[in-house]
Design a protein that fits this description.
Blueprint (H helix, E strand, L loop, with lengths): L17 H4 E2 L3 E5 L1 H9 L5 E4 L5 E7 L2 E2 H9 L3 E8 L6 H28 L3 H9 L13 H10 L1 H20 L6 H16 L3 H12 L6 H14 L2 H29 L5 H5 L2 H14 L3 E7 L11 E8 L4 H12 L8 H7 L4 H4 L1 H4 L1 H10 L3 E8 L6 E8 L1
Antiparallel strand pairs: 1-5, 2-4, 2-6, 3-4, 6-7, 7-8, 8-10, 9-10
Length: 400
């Protein structure tokens, strides 16, 4: 597909088995006010949860989390924050990758649906309808009765299937024709194209039914054009998880070095700790004793009324062991470096498990920024401190 971004090696979007949908990672899950009201109405009590930034939120605590549930909560604008606290968070590396992928993709699906709805409502056929039917205009504020929506979707199920095919099939043909793409990348893009269309809401499909059956509009090419853009944007859901793991690795290495110094009276390199099981056990035990936990937080900003507003995701790592000013200076030095001699492939070639490689994560913040610029995704990073607590945190901020 024209303009497709190179993917990081070893990490592509793959179909999830039943086992993979259950992520064994302890999480604090907090929800929006609308979700809290929903849970209260359905007699599902929530409790106040203390977060790493000292905020008190309504939510629940879970030892495992279901990926489809995270997706549904995000799409419904019910998910507010997820927080994972651990002395040794890299034990859950795969779960961190999966969660970051799921949340970023769900936000892209949500933004895609909002953009499609906005563009459909600006079609000439809709404008003409609104002029002729001022008492029954179609706009962002229009609400359809659920019973009517369900009835019409059932009645026009064949039309919906045909619309999906006519939207997706030409794009699949384009993807198949890309000889410079590897087969797994082509398969991933084809799955994503279908997932975006499948994540349009019943209200969106009802609007499409009205456009086709009553207004005579044929918006398939319009939808496909937007879809093409969002499939390309989806590559950020593969870059971002690796950057998050790099960030966690930096925090965990900082804590291990400090714990090792307390035990042995001198600095110990993280790779020495990781390759010596006895030393690692001693260091992890010392980190537990000293309360050297890291908190990784995914924060989804609520959907805004403006359909053109960007969806914001902030991923933060909280660590009392960070020397804030030193860390902030290091981040600021690296995040805007000249990339003329460094491609995005360089970043993924360096991703690995050793502490030495993990330090390159800060350097390649600039690579991630560059990739986001190419994809029209706003990206920033910052270092700050929880007021009155002395806990520094590093945030990655994306606006889709």
């Amino acid at each position: 597909m024209e303009g497709a971004s190179a993917r990081p090696s070893g990490w592509t979007v793959v179909p999830q088995t039943a086992e993979q949908t259950q992520l064994r990672i302890p999480l604090k899950v907090t929800v929006t006010r609308a979700a809290a009201d929903y849970f209260m109405r359905h007699n599902r009590p929530l409790k106040r949860i203390h977060m790493a930034d000292d905020a008190e939120e309504f939510g629940f605590v879970a030892e495992t989390v279901d990926r489809p549930l995270v997706h549904r909560l995000t799409m419904a604008d019910y998910l507010q924050r997820l927080e994972f606290v651990s002395v040794d968070p890299l034990e859950k590396r795969n779960e961190i990758l999966e969660l970051t992928t799921q949340i970023s993709l769900s936000l892209l699906y949500r933004k895609f649906a909002a953009e499609i709805r906005s563009r459909l409502l600006k079609l000439p056929e809709v404008e003409a309808w609104n002029r002729q039917n001022p008492s029954a205009i179609l706009d962002e504020q229009t609400r359809f009765r659920e019973t009517v929506v369900n009835r019409e979707m059932s009645r026009h199920s064949d039309l919906i299937k045909n619309l999906k095919k006519s939207i997706v099939r030409p794009l699949v043909d384009e993807i198949n024709s890309q000889s410079d793409m590897d087969a797994p990348d082509r398969d991933a893009d084809k799955r994503l194209a279908l997932e975006y269309v499948n994540n349009l809401s019943s209200y969106d499909w009802y609007l499409l039914i009205l456009l086709r059956t009553k207004l005579g509009a044929r918006p398939e090419e319009l939808i496909r054009s937007v879809l093409r853009t969002y499939v390309r944007k989806s590559t950020v859901s593969e870059y971002l998880p690796l950057m998050v793991v790099e960030l966690v690795m930096i925090g965990q290495n900082t804590n291990m070095v400090n714990a090792g110094r307390r035990i042995y009276g001198e600095p110990v390199q993280p790779e020495s700790i990781m390759t010596n099981p006895e030393m690692k056990d001693a260091v992890v035990a010392e980190m537990h004793r000293a309360g050297q936990s890291l908190a990784l937080d995914w924060h989804v900003s609520p959907r805004r009324l403006d359909p053109n507003a960007r969806q914001r995701l902030t991923i933060s790592l909280y660590n009392m062991e960070f020397q804030m000013q030193e860390f902030r200076d290091s981040v600021n030095r690296h995040k805007n470096m000249n990339l003329s001699d460094h491609s995005l492939k360089d970043f993924f070639a360096t991703v690995g498990g050793t502490a030495q490689q993990s330090q390159l994560g800060l350097y390649y913040l600039s690579c991630l920024r560059s990739a986001c610029d190419d994809l029209d995704i706003r990206f920033d990073s910052m270092v700050s401190e929880v007021p009155g607590k002395g806990t520094a945190f590093f945030s990655l901020i994306l606006q889709f």
